[in-house]
Write a structure and sequence with these properties.
Layout: H1 7-16, H2 20-46, E1 52-54, E2 69-73, H3 84-90, E3 93-94, E4 97-98, E5 101-104, E6 115-123, E7 128-133, E8 136-141, E9 146-150, H4 158-161, E10 180-188, H5 193-196, H6 198-240
Helix pairs in contact: 2-6
Length: 241
């Protein structure tokens, strides 16, 4: 009857074993652990989740482009959130224009991807606004208190730009504070293409890990074989002498 290994012994085996399946499991565990650590650090630093989003459309061009990776922080982190109207007065600019760019869930819907647009101004419930699209004036009365928002590259505010945004069944309402995921803090160009193709990236990463491990095992095997043949060569030389 074989004695059951202790947890410490099992852990040592997992860390040092050269068995193929254990090696693959160990490498994948290291990758998952590294990702989990990065996620935890991002949440602690940024104070919100998701702490990173990818630009998927051209609505914020040229200040944010498709494929940009954007770092998101809580709306009260690194200074209070300021709208475009407030930024013009205080001089606060973000991404080449006054005010902050916010990430929010349209109408509080958690099933849709968050929107990343600039907060233009705060509106009280029932407040009247006049928006302009080219030369056309659009009168708008805010149905609730919240931020009026707009993509920097869009011609009209979100609240009148879509009658039925992505199946919401209604236009985008002024953004309540509880619908805000956070504000955009910094962006890295092009890196966001990786999350946009996350399935392909994962497959490629796993394949690279396997190829790397096979290479190390092959090299280790060659070195061991080289050591075993060296004594035989030396013996032959001695016989010749």
């Amino acid at each position: 009857m074989t004695q059951k290994k202790s947890f410490k012994e099992q852990l040592h085996t997992f860390r040092t074993s050269e068995e193929t399946m254990i090696v693959y499991a160990r490498e994948i565990t290291y990758v998952i652990g590294t990702v989990a650590l990065i996620v935890a650090l991002l949440y602690l630093i940024c104070g919100t989740w998701p702490a990173i989003v990818t630009i998927e459309s051209g609505s914020m061009e040229p200040n944010m482009n498709i494929g940009d990776l954007v770092l998101v922080v809580a709306h009260d982190r690194f200074g209070v959130l300021q709208s475009y109207a407030e930024g013009k007065q205080t001089g606060h600019e973000k991404f080449s224009r006054p005010g902050d760019v916010i990430i929010f869930r349209a109408n509080g819907n958690r099933e849709l991807h968050p929107i990343i647009h600039r907060a233009l101004s705060w509106s009280e419930e029932g407040e009247k606004h006049t928006f302009y699209e080219d030369a056309r004036a659009i009168e708008y009365i805010a149905p609730n208190a919240g931020y009026i928002t707009k993509g920097d590259n869009n011609s009209i505010e979100d609240q009148v730009g879509w009658e039925n945004y992505r199946g919401l069944g209604s236009p985008i309402l002024p953004v309540k504070e509880e619908w805000i995921v956070g504000k955009a803090y910094a962006r890295i160009p092009y890196v966001g293409y990786l999350p946009l193709n996350v399935e392909k990236v994962i497959v490629i990463l796993v394949l690279l890990i396997i190829i790397h491990e096979l290479y190390l095992r092959s090299r280790s095997k060659e070195e061991k074989e080289g050591k075993t043949t060296e004594p035989r060569k030396s013996q032959k030389k001695k016989l010749k002498k």
